[in-house]
Amino acid sequence: MDVQHVPVLLAESLERLAPGRGGLFVDATVGLGGHAEALLAASPDVELVGIDRDPAALERAGRRLAPFGGRVRLVQANFHQLEQALAGLGVRGVGSIAGVLADLGVSSLQLDTAERGFSFRFDGPLDMRMGLADLTAADVVNQASEGELEKIFRDYGEERQARRIARAIGRARLERPIETTGELRRLVGGVLGGGRRHEERIDPATRVFQALRIAVNEELAGLDAFIQRAVELMETDGRLVIISYHSLEDRIVKNTLRDLAQGEVDLITGRPRAETRLIEVLTKKPLRPSEEEVAFNPRSRSARLRAARRL
User: Fold this and answer.
1) HSE, side-chain direction, 13 A CA sphere, residue 178
2) How far apart are CA 261 and CA 244, in angstroms?
3) Looking at domain 116-217, what is its CATH homologous superfamily?
4) What pLDDT digit, counting tens, does each position of 129-153 carry?
5) What is the three-state SS of 197-257?
6) Residue 276's pLDDT band (cuts 50, 70, 90)
7) CB 3.0–4.6 Å: which of 48, 147, 205, 239 could bond 188 by disulfide?
8) Across residues 223-241, what is the average pLDDT?
9) 137, 169 Cβ separation under 8 angstroms
10) Are the C-beta atoms of residues 98 and 21 closer than 8 Å to each other?
11) Longest alpha-carbon distance in the chain
12) Least trusted range by pLDDT, from 16-20, 62-66, 189-193, 246-250
């Protein structure tokens, strides 16, 4: 299946990453390689490490980036394992990286492959695993308690009707397991109906699918620690770009960058110590895609880019 991949906020990412400086850049979520390809093409002095937990995506990225030869190294790992992945390539220590990019969205390959179970646009197995996680979304839906499901839908999907949906799942799975994306979508639609969110222009199942995907892949766990370590590994004037797609991710990114930009708090005065600041935030507000980009690539609609520079 030939999946089209359009990198989100590409020009904005390149401007903040400033690859003309050369050096080693890390695409911590390389996906199908769109951002990575642009980084490598921007300067012959750029080398790149691409990390992704999805072996299918890495295989596709490898083909796309093959023309750049030895300037590219790919590693199968979760971006939370940044330091270990780099150490496995012999890249160690503070000041070893010129820039880090993390695009936290689901890749086109995952969304457009029915058997991966990420999207309710296709009727496929309820899987949603980005990598080699043990539990599928079907496992969570059929094995978690109603209370656990309610918490997942409320915390990760910000779903106001989390309890009603969890109860409906509990009743349905007594008769038979919920195994496909279509089954889950119809169940959620039966609980919520189509009218309540007409003004939001999203399918009633959107937040439930988002919540399950986050839970299966533990997407929010360690995001703040990843940002902290990425900054620590960057050289002076190194650049960090994070692209997120929903408020839960963006809140973590925003707060972590704010703390790193303020520095440590003096225990006596209660004020930040300027000499301990690690970064300068380059985006006072998150950058959003233009109307033209959204028209060309509707999946970019919810993207938010935040960037910082290592001091």
Assistant:
1) 27
2) 19
3) Putative methyltransferase TM0872, insert domain (1.10.150.170)
4) 987 667 999 999 999 999 999 999 9
5) CHHHCCCCCHHHHHHHHHHHHCCCCCHHHHHHHHHHHEEEEEEEEEEECCHHHHHHHHHHH
6) confident
7) 205
8) 97
9) no
10) yes
11) 62
12) 189-193
10-104+220-310 is classed CATH 1.10.3210.10 = no
Give the count of beta carbons closer than 10 Å to the beta carbon of residue 57: 26
Q: What is the pTM of this model?
A: 0.89
Match 């370590």 to its residue by tokens.
Answer: 229
Q: Is 234:240 a contact under the CB 8 Å cutoff?
A: yes
pLDDT of residue 127: 93
Query: Are 38 and 11 within 8 A, CB to CB?
Result: no
Q: What is the pLDDT of residue 24?
A: 98
Q: 214 and 184 in contact (C-beta within 8 Å)?
A: no
Total count of residues recorded for the chain: 311
How big is the chain by its Cα radius of gyration, in Å?
Answer: 20
Tell me the domain boundaries of the chain: 10-104+220-310, 116-217
State the DSSP code for 13.
H
55 in Cβ contact with 32 (< 8 Å): no
CB 82 within 8 A of CB 233: yes
Show the CA angle centred on residue 289, arms to residues 257 and 114, nearest 5°: 95
Q: Can you tell me which residue has the tokens 């301990």?
A: 276
Question: How does pLDDT run across 71-98, given as a tens digit for each residue?
Answer: 999 999 999 999 999 999 999 888 899 9
Residue 253 C-beta-side C-alpha neighbours within 13 Å = 27
